[in-house]
Amino acid sequence: VTELITEAERDPDLLVGLDFAFSVPLWFLRQRRLTRFEDLWGLVAERGEAWLAGCEPPFWGKPGKKRPELPEHFRCTETESPRVGGSAPKSVFQIGGAGAVGTGSLRGMPCLRSLHAAGFSIWPFHEPKLPTVIEIYPRLLTGPVVKSSPDARLAYLWEAFPELTQAMVDVAASSEDAFDAAVSALVMSQNVSELEALERASDSQVLLEGAIWWHEAGVVPVHVEPSSPTEIEGCPFCDPDPADVIASSRYAIAIRDRYPVSEGHTLVIPRDHARTLYELSASVQSDLWQLVARVRSALAGEVSADGFNIGLNEGEAAGQTVSHPHIHIVPRFDGDVPDPRGLNTAARWCSTLTCNRAPSTRRW
């Protein structure tokens, strides 16, 4: 809340999407004789933690607390929202179990009161003005992408938002929560004109229960399955152990060299098989070198390298032992050789990459 208020002071043209329920079903309000949404937020501020601790009906979801019979578990906005890939919004009364939204909602509603006191308009309860807070359900904005799959998250972001830089994609794909937040913000930014046209609710029930925002044109999300790379049977780089992958990009992965010549020695490998790096498209080559830059930057801090040798061996005559392009990133340290300058050192380095190995048919 403090961060949002500070940001709004810096730039009041702020639109915030929050992923929790802003209110409860109408019957709960009437049962407690609450006639305004602000009254609910005040009551939750006073009693919310006790409700969470006790988990008494209408709340449920903690061990031993089964779903009770209630007049209604959902607000109108939840029953009317589209279903995406079998997913639907959860009840605000569910405070435990998979997908539970109740805990976040009970702790979030008092935040809405604080934000409104600081000048935010909370849609659809207040007259619209910036800064504004809206309720979102990220699944309505991401579509049915398999969010638990890192590859699916990456593929979705590359396909749906080609304007993103690699660094942005890496952050957005780093976890399911980061993915939800990034995609929600991006979809909101694509629909600014629609969001600017939002009005205070005229329906009395919506004025008490609130509403989830989603794109009025309907949920037509991009759904991208990760592409299957071109693989060659028997190639160790075509089917690496996922546990060995320390970094990845759209077209490449990074793994530690099995026989490192220095601490942190890493390989950047294109996902698709090829005989040489230069058979790959310009976009793939560019992506590989961007991943090289990321890995090099990470290694600089990780192993306190004083320098790097970065390059590749192309062809058997150059010492290439796996016929799948791969770029070596070899951290170097002051004093690791008597004289690190010149072609003789480069030749010794290339020789080391291919010769100083334990006997193996899968050397790299």
Feature tags:
alpha/beta, 5-stranded antiparallel beta sheet, 364 residues, 4-stranded parallel beta sheet
* Structural class assignment: alpha/beta
Question: What share of the residues lie within helices?
Answer: 25-40%
- Mean pLDDT over all positions: 85
Number of helical regions: 13
What's the main sheet like?
A: 5 strands, antiparallel
Low-confidence stretches: 217-228, 354-364
| Share of residues in strands | 5-15%
The rounded distance between the terminal residues' Cα atoms is 51 Å
Which of globular, elongated, flat, extended, rod-shaped describes the shape?
A: elongated
Using only C-alpha atoms, the radius of gyration works out to 27 Å
Side by side, the strands of the main sheet go 5-6-7-9-8
Helix/strand order, N-terminal first: HEHHHHEEHHHHHHEEEEHEEH
Query: How many β-strand runs?
Result: 9
Fold and architecture overview:
- This protein has a five-stranded antiparallel β-sheet with strand order 5-6-7-9-8, with helices on one face. Strands 1, 2, 3 and 4 form a four-stranded parallel β-sheet that branches.
- The protein is an alpha/beta fold.
- The protein has helices at 2-10, 26-31, 37-54, 76-80, 102-117, 138-142, 150-160, 166-172, 176-190, 192-196, 204-209, 282-302, 342-355; strands at 15-18, 121-122, 132-136, 212-213, 245-248, 252-256, 266-270, 307-311, 327-332.
- α3 (37-54) runs antiparallel to α5.
- The two termini are 51 Å apart.
- It is elongated and about 85 Å long.
